[in-house]
């Protein structure tokens, strides 16, 4: 008899755990600000950033997931640019940086289901970065792969229809330098997006 009670208890706990789990699909728009070494290469903020991802709650207060995105930074600059260590080129430059992060993440939440859920989390993964400098008819382009860490702070806010809401917050991405791109690419970003819960 004890055996059947134990089996029923285990099945009941498993069912309650599964039914408590939920997933979040999100789409965010990002406003990015260059920081550190990147700010010396590109000074202007970017309003062209987008991320899409999903998270699955493994406990009521903890989720794991992944995301991918694309951000574009650009600015113009006038002066002398050294090319390949041997040639100096002078003129108006147009500088571009396209970033494509692919990250895994984990987040810790406060608050209760159905209400506002503030969270603190971190993202880790790789970012493919293409830098391009155009001077007159010449263009110098390089693509590199970087290990990236990105802590973030935000909140999931339910709005209107059940299962829909907003995702707001801020994060700091650091893509560590490599042999191809000798700078830590750092950005601070604010984001606003939509979430869909199920």
Description:
The protein has 198 residues and is mainly β. It has a single domain (23-197), classed as Beta Barrel (Porin), CATH 2.40.160.20. Helix content is 13%, strand content 69%. The protein contains two helices and eight strands. It has helices at 2-20, 36-41, and strands spanning 23-35, 46-59, 62-83, 87-109, 117-135, 138-158, 164-175, 185-197. A hairpin with a 2-residue loop joins strand 2 and strand 3 (62-83). The protein is elongated and about 60 Å long. The model is unreliable at 1-20 (pLDDT under 50).
Q: Which structural traits does this protein have?
A:
mainly beta; 198 residues; Porin; eight-stranded antiparallel barrel; 2 helices
Biggest pleated-sheet summary: 8 strands, antiparallel, barrel
Q: Give the DSSP E fraction (strand runs of 2 or more residues).
A: over 45%
> Could you spell the SSE succession in H and E letters?
HEHEEEEEEE
Poorly predicted ranges (pLDDT <50, ≥5 residues)? Answer: 1-20
Mean pLDDT level:
86
Number of strands: 8
Summary, kept brief:
With 198 residues, the chain is mainly beta.
Strand-helix topology:
Layout: H1 2-20, E1 23-35, H2 36-41, E2 46-59, E3 62-83, E4 87-109, E5 117-135, E6 138-158, E7 164-175, E8 185-197
